[in-house]
């Protein structure tokens, strides 16, 4: 997997460079204002996660295979929850506590508090994928797409199979009007997790817009 990181980094760097030109500072929401409740919902870990083993790499490889082969929605959700549980694991008790506090702050609409807590997480454990992913989600909810894209890059360099980050990338591209890149990101997310909610509909709609209807 390590050999894929430089290639993923180059792809994301090109994407970020092109995107920053399209995202102006004015698009960022006032950080003192809580994100509206009717924002689009990104894929996220379920509120209750199953217990999983300590062998993270082997566990994820097996679960991603099981996710693609899941025969129905219920089975897929069970496997997906186990993937999230492995992603959420951290050997740092401090990072785990900061993540819990950040979630509580977000639930209480305390955006600035949550952001500071997540800043601490990524500084403490830059190898922890979910620290970056949670902060990317927070930036997305604030409409701060430039910073969200930077954090998404960090997620995908560490875990190219992170369907939540890929779906978030697609939503940002869709929001700024880059439908071709949005379609590409959504397709990649679906290739990893065919059971993502609403993403198949987004792919269908964008396919018709970008590639035209079948004749």
UniProtKB/TrEMBL annotation:
Residues 1-28 form the signal peptide. It comes from the Bacteria. Pfam families: TPR_8 (PF13181). The keyword Lyase does not apply. Residues 25-53 are annotated as: Disordered. TPR repeats lie at residues 163-196. Keywords: Signal, TPR repeat. This is Tetratricopeptide repeat protein. The lineage of its organism: Bacteria, Pseudomonadati, Pseudomonadota, Alphaproteobacteria, Hyphomicrobiales.
């Amino acid at each position: 997997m390590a050999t894929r990181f430089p290639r993923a980094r180059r792809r994301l760097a090109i994407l970020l460079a092109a995107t920053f030109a399209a995202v102006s500072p004015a698009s960022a929401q006032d950080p003192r204002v809580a994100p509206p409740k009717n924002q689009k919902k990104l894929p996220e870990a379920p509120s209750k996660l199953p217990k999983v083993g300590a062998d993270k790499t082997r566990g994820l490889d097996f679960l991603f295979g099981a996710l693609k082969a899941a025969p129905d929605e219920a089975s897929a959700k069970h496997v997906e929850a186990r993937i999230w549980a492995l992603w959420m694991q951290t050997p740092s008790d401090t990072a785990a506590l900061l993540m819990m506090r950040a979630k509580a702050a977000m639930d209480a609409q305390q955006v600035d508090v949550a952001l500071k807590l997540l800043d601490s997480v990524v500084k403490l454990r830059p190898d922890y994928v979910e620290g970056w992913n949670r902060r990317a989600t927070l930036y997305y909810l604030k409409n701060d797409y430039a910073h969200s894209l930077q954090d998404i890059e960090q997620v995908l360099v560490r875990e190219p199979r992170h369907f939540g980050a890929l779906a978030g990338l697609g939503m940002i591209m869709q929001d700024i009007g880059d439908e071709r890149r949005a379609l590409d990101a959504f397709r990649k997310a679906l290739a990893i997790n065919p059971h993502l909610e609403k993403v198949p509909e987004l792919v269908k709609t964008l396919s018709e817009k970008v590639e035209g209807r079948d004749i």
